[in-house]
Amino acid sequence: xxxxxxxxxxxxxxxxxxxxxxxxxxxxxxxxxxxxxxxxxxxxxxxxxxxxxxxxxxxxxxxxxxxxxxxxxxxxxxxxxxxxxxxxxxxxxxxxxxxxxxxxxxxxxxxxxxxxxxxxxxxxxxxxxxxxxxxxxxxxxxxxxxxxxxxxxxxxxxxxx
Length: 161
Known about the structure:
The chain is α+β, with helices and mostly antiparallel strands. Helices cover 28% and strands 23% of the residues. It is built from three helices and six strands. Strands 3, 4, 5 and 6 form a four-stranded mixed β-sheet that branches. Strands 1-2 form a two-stranded antiparallel ribbon. The radius of gyration is 22 Å and the shape is elongated. The relative contact order is 0.15. Residues 1-20 have low confidence and may be disordered.
């Protein structure tokens, strides 16, 4: 591999090549022209969705975050889309990402197995969709959902008819 740390003229054969951006100019492939940035929120949404797909995960977020999120979702314009990222924290660099998850596991599920499945699914989804290398997925199990615990269910019918 050649040293591509500088871009410039001259008669060097690698002129017009940058280590971070690839080849430039009319002869360069389209996928190497320009820069793509991925927001932290995008990675958080992908990680949140991937974690929720795993059997044995009841919900994401610590108890207080879930309670505040439930209230926020019921307020008009309160950010119902934030539920996807509740319990998810990410750090995104140029080429790498780290993910922290706070999860609630279903009672009876093997926490070790569920955590391993979540890591695998999150890493696969984030790397496939963003091209970023996931360097770590930290999982904190904040609660266990018991079968007799009822979530606050929304009523089927409104009070006013």
